[in-house]
Amino acid sequence: MQPSSQKASGEAPPGNARIVREYLAYLRVEKGMRPATCEAYARDLDQLAEQLEKRGGLLATALEEDIGGFMAHLRSNHVDARSIARKLSCLRGFYRWLLLDKRIAHDPTVNIETPASWKILPKSLAESEVSAMLERSALAASNPGTSKHAPEAAALALRDHAILELLYAGGLRVGEIVALGEEDLHLDQARAQVRGKGDKERIVPLGRRAVEALDEYIKRGRTVLACRGTYRAGMSPRALFLSVRGRALTRQWVWEMVRTAAGSIDGGRKASPHMLRHSCATHMVEHGADLRSVQRLLGHADIATTQVYTHVAMEHLKRVHREHHPRGKRRAIVSELVVVSEDKGQDGDAVGVNV
User: Fold this and answer.
1) Predicted confidence band at 44 (pLDDT cuts at 50, 70, 90)?
2) Rounded-to-integer distance, Cα 268 and Cα 289, Å
């Protein structure tokens, strides 16, 4: 009897390397996924393929017990639950593609449970921590030093401050930051045009401080860095944020810059660009922003992704409840004081308790 996940036509299924290449081409062309995402998916699929090949199996003929065994193998090697869930998400997309393309008759991932810890709440910084980091970077941008390298140092400080302000103001992903071009900024309208996951474009509004930081960087910083690069006549670098050599920044460099700018916080925790993105969303929800607006700002395809910030902001919501609900703790105390004052008034004692 033929395995349920094998092609119904009876043709020999393609080798693992070939089918992974075809799937990655589909992700790039049809789904518009970025190279870094495709590379991560390729690593996950190669890892499963390696496990299957030990027993002479193929990705196209994998069964539910094969996927379950792979998950168990990851757990036995102390891979954290969130990483396992991410790999499972990759496999689900892969087998969904095979199913829709009629290469298999059954999806072997359909009954595999996602680890519960996949719903880990995103980590964010306190408003005071973000403010301190931005104030330090603003101070560095305004006081670059007086050495012979002052113009270059000033340009780098202006660039770093502009990146930090943009990460927090717009909630951008690190990949979106490095992909920004100078033409994507519309500072006169206080907005930026961002290309996110799946090549989906969105308009991100910018606050006054972010606009000022970006304007200073473009006027006094980017021109200095652009002159450091070598380009053909009449050409200039497209990237908005440039390295000391006048080239586009890498994602890894931005991560390191944010870690350095934040320093050690909250018992040794290290900040990251994504933490600033989470901080932007969390602080907006805490200050009363509706989820649909936050969803549009962050570029989430599904509102369910944005709903996690309601849990992150739970302490703020509890505080609001205590202060404003008729039966909230603070309201209850106020009511008791009012009752006591009324009782005293009835007994002929002094009234007029200030609450």
Assistant:
1) very high
2) 30
Nearest one of 209, 61, 188 to 130, comparing CA atoms:
209
Distance, in Å, from the CA atom of 276 to the CA atom of 279, rounded to the nearest integer, reads 5
Distance CA 152, CA 227 (A): 11
Known catalytic residue at 78:
no
Q: Which of 87, 103, 173, 278 is catalytic?
A: 173
> From the candidates 92, 106, 197, 220, which is the catalytic residue?
197
- Contact (CB, 8 A) for 237 and 218: no
Please tell me whether the overall predicted TM-score, pTM, comes out greater than 0.70 for this model: no
List, for residues 227-257, the tens digit of each pLDDT value. 876 655 445 578 999 998 888 999 999 999 9
Q: Is 277 a catalytic residue?
A: yes
Residues 211-229 have pLDDT tens digits of: 999 999 999 999 888 887 6
Is 197 a known active-site residue?
A: yes
Residue 148 · residue 158 · CB < 8 Å: no
Which stretches does DSSP call E strand in 231-322? 264-265, 269-270
User: Each residue of 187-211: b (16+ CB within 10 Å) or e?
Assistant: eeebbbebbbbeeeeeebebeeebb
